[in-house]
Amino acid sequence: MNRHGNGLIAPTLTALTVLVSLSSVTGNYCEVNLCHNGATCVTGVGEEPFICICPDGFGGDTCNLTDTGPCSPNPCKNDGTCELLTPTRRGDVFNEYICRCQPGFEGVHCQINVNDCDNEPCANGGKCRDLDGDYTCQCPSPYVGKQCQLRCISLLGMEGGAIVESQISASSVHYGILGLQRWGPELARLNNQGIVNAWTSASHDRNPWIEINMQKKMRLTGIITQGASRMGASEYIKAFKVASSFDGVTYTTHRADGQRRDKVFVGNTDNDSTKTNMFDPPIVAQFIRIIPVVCRRACTLRMELVGCELNVYSNTAGCSEPLGMKSRLISDGQLSASSTFRTWGIDTFTWHPQFARLDKQGKTNAWSPANNNRSEWIQVDLEKTKRLTGIITQGAKDFGVVQFVSVFKVMYSNNGESWSTVKDGNTGNDKLFQGNTDNNTHKKNLFEPPFYAQFVRVVPLEWHERITLRMELLGCDD
Ligand SMILES: *[C@@H]1O[C@H](CO)[C@@H](O)[C@H](O)[C@H]1NC(C)=O
Ligand SMILES: *[C@@H]1O[C@H](CO)[C@@H](O)[C@H](O)[C@H]1NC(C)=O
Ligand SMILES: *[C@@H]1O[C@H](CO)[C@@H](O)[C@H](O)[C@H]1NC(C)=O
Ligand SMILES: *[C@@H]1O[C@H](CO)[C@@H](O)[C@H](O)[C@H]1NC(C)=O
């Protein structure tokens, strides 16, 4: 049933134009534009010498006819659909038509983008941003969740011991008193007591660090630091940076939201008092590294990490929010694809990856690639690691032709370079997701188990007519 052909549109032009045959004329018809009203003239499509592609509001073979009716051209803004009213339903309303608005829009012509922040959905000082039919809260640490309603403030176990010795490592160790005192990383526990009670880097170490391996991905919202005293003198870290990693190989240095420079945290000022710093935004990682920048006498540290398990959030709130294809939280710049198709090679009818938004309306309202084969993909850069739990896909129509992707794979990556494919939990093979069967129905697939990634790719494997996709990703901010 599914075809892999290039699905050229020739037999199905009727919805747009009527083919014009001028058999007595030869040559390139479009040298003289026989189309009216600013229409585009195209040669070399199918068997007909030329066709006219009419602008909105015009029809007929040569676009010389004005489409009649109040819905043509569509008076509704923001992807609203225009519905003609029967005479009996008229009267109380202003016109012969009514606009059915997409979620998040209202007004007679859907011209008003409803401010979804109006009823202040964000708790605990979260900053609300209005989206199309949705909102997003930017939560100050340690608050998380769709509405910043959850607090992520567990002490993760440096002081309590839940983090064991083998999870703590460092670039170097200071040995005091003829090498008898070992100021090892495993001692870097908040409020640790004794004569030797903290980590100190070796004095020759020019790039010291201490690292905690959390053994799984965790959400970290803050750090508590403390110095120590050695031989009656205070030693502590006055300023430090924080780096994190998923794999212990590539590290990212923490930056505050919207900043281009590494965040330098202000640390301690004496041997004993504690200093708390929050990570804003929170860090999601398995490995966390504290990098001293300025040390008093020596880089000496006792510490605690503050955060929470990632699945706390999904257990309480359900991790299946739309991540923003439809609402445009995912911006155009975050979408890319292997290639794009242009109907009849015309720029106006380009099927950009930026159109692959669930429920998008319009003449070209989905992504479609230049070729119909299994090398094509569409990619979303979520800009930070998120927990992905599902995907909704949808087909579309190209001038009346129903097109959709019926089987696809999903790939993901943390850096946009090395990719993993979502596997079938039972067989261990690449998971083949069942896609669409028509031009409009939402088909939802869940990722079981969920995965974490910044980049997600959808790779079509089977399709009807032409690869054509609108979609939404489901997950949460973990
Ligand atoms: C539009 O063009 C066709 C021929 O291409 C012609 O037969 C018809 O009369 C024209 N209609 C108007 C309204 O000009
Ligand atoms: C270290 O801290 C304790 C408690 O605040 C204080 O009594 C002591 O004098 C400090 N030692 C040094 C060397 O500063
Ligand atoms: C898909 O088509 C493109 C362009 O024709 C070609 O370069 C590529 O090798 C094809 N891939 C497959 C898997 O056939
Ligand atoms: C395409 O989707 C629309 C909207 O749901 C539906 O009304 C129409 O019947 C579908 N067209 C085809 C050919 O399936």
UniProtKB/TrEMBL annotation:
Record keyword Chloroplast present: no
Annotated Gene Ontology cellular component terms: plasma membrane
UniProt keyword annotations, A-Z: Disulfide bond, EGF-like domain, Signal
Occurrences of domain EGF-like (ranges): 26-64, 67-111, 113-149
Any single Pfam family the record assigns to this protein: EGF
Cited Gene3D superfamilies: Galactose-binding domain-like, Laminin
Cystine residue pairs: 35-52, 54-63, 101-110, 139-148
Claim: Signal is one of the keywords in the record: yes
Signal peptide: 1-27
SMART domains given in the database record: EGF (SM00181), EGF_CA (SM00179), FA58C (SM00231)
One annotated GO molecular function: calcium ion binding
Record-annotated F5/8 type C domain positions: 152-308, 319-476
Name of the molecule in the record: Lactadherin-like
Gene: LOC115417126
